[in-house]
Amino acid sequence: MAGRHALAGPRELQGTILLSPQYRSHRTASRSTRCMVTKREDLYDKDWKKGYFGTGYFVEGTRPTKEQYSYLRQLEKKKVLSGVEKAGLLSKLERAGLTLSKIEDWKLLSTAESLGALSLLERALETEPGTIASLSIPPLIASIAILTLVPDDNPALAAVKYSAAAVLLGSTGAFIAGAFLLSSLSDE
What InterPro entries does the record point to (predicted)? Predict the structure, then answer.
């Protein structure tokens, strides 16, 4: 019997159970079960380095890599500029006194370029939304620690305590809002 199964192909073995008699059930059915496994995609992160706060070598999912993804294309698909036009945001800014010539006179763009704000924005757009959201945890813990550990003995110390906690909570909210915005832009 074992010799017959050793040379048999998959069609001949489809209805047979190859277990010893003590493991066979009383009811033997000859039915085949097929399951469909969804394709899983593992993306390789070239910039990953082993460190104390490493997140993993492979990222599982279907999110496109940095080279394939364009936030400007996503803004075009979501018709953000049309929404700005319909809301009349540019005319409201002009009525408030903010025009392109004033931005040019104040040299805001050259200042932002010299401070590296544009490269910082580019790096933030290339970062995963989950990483940006996880950056909100340390300021949150620090604000809770300040509120619980620093005493309210005098008004000056209380003002410093509450203003530091407010700044830290504001940065927590900014990280979470930035991650949400980046996540909504990257959804297709």
Answer: DUF1118 (IPR009500)
